[in-house]
Amino acid sequence: MKKGHWIMAIILLVLIAFVITNLNTIKILCGNWFGPKASLSSSKTWEGGNSYEHVPYSEVSESDYLHLYVPESEKPVPLYIMVHGGGFFMNDLESRQAQLFYRYVRDQGYAVATINYRLGDEAMYPAAIEDVKSAVRFLRANANEYGLDPTKFAIAGESAGGYLACMAAMTTDEEFMGVPFIGEESSDQPVSAKVEAVVDFYGCINFFTSEEEFQELKVPKWIRQIANNWLSKIVDNTEAKSIEELWIGKTISSMSKEELEIYQVSYYAKKNQAACKDLRVVILHGDADLSVPYLQSSHFYDLIKPLYGEENVTYRLFPNYGHASDGFYLDETLSWVLDEIGW
Q1: Which site among 135, 232, 242, 244 is 20 to 30 Å from 75 CA-CA?
Q2: Nearest alpha-carbon partner for 27 in 17, 15, 19
Q3: Considering the domain 49-341 in this protein, what is its CATH number?
């Protein structure tokens, strides 16, 4: 065999060996590169009901406002509240994922709100949680004005918004209530931030276990670093080793085990089990996620299923879906979500 042929054979063998030993990596990359795409019209005109845009819900910050869409109806309608993601430091209520969600939901005859909250460069933890709960209370306090059913509020969130939505849903009216809503001072009685359902789209449920979980899933660190370069730029030149550390203003190494717990959704899910016994929970994640390991959702499901009842908790893992994949917002997926809530 000629020398050139030997070289080609060696290269081919190396490529074959790489493919065989990195099948999981290749599968994940393909899921992120070639995942399903949803259509998002450039037109924002909606003629199905009343639109209320840039409505302030708190005077704490100019960031605290929401858009609300209420379909034509002779009776009060259930409300879905969307909390955008973006690593606690980016995006707003008009993110692609938020638009895909609220446009579909409002066309199905439900009211839907998409909300802004203070990002980390304006105010760190727990500001965003308090803002979200303030928005929920504002909407409930004004339910009659907008034609909403105050007994049927669902909150949905994606990525960082998934964390915020779950924190809002699984904490009580004595927790994270530091942001008054507009009109609260004139309210005759306290207004609850309680919701009846929560939809968690690939939320970062546990801030401090991602690295271990990615290692367990055999997802190479170099791929994750490329995929999350936009977050790395925010953390660069700070003492934080992750976006979560930067947002809470503390490093993992500086906190005790007890301190670490209070930042986790799981802590409140267990602590407030009695208050959440009727909460409907729907969890979605993709197995090609390079930002939040899907084991976060798997472990969360395993934790809350016995706490809230198997009939109240649903978890669906989507093959080959990456983080924030359009596939989560296809009509058939969102139709399934609404069916699971059952309103």
Answers
A1: 135
A2: 19
A3: 3.40.50.1820
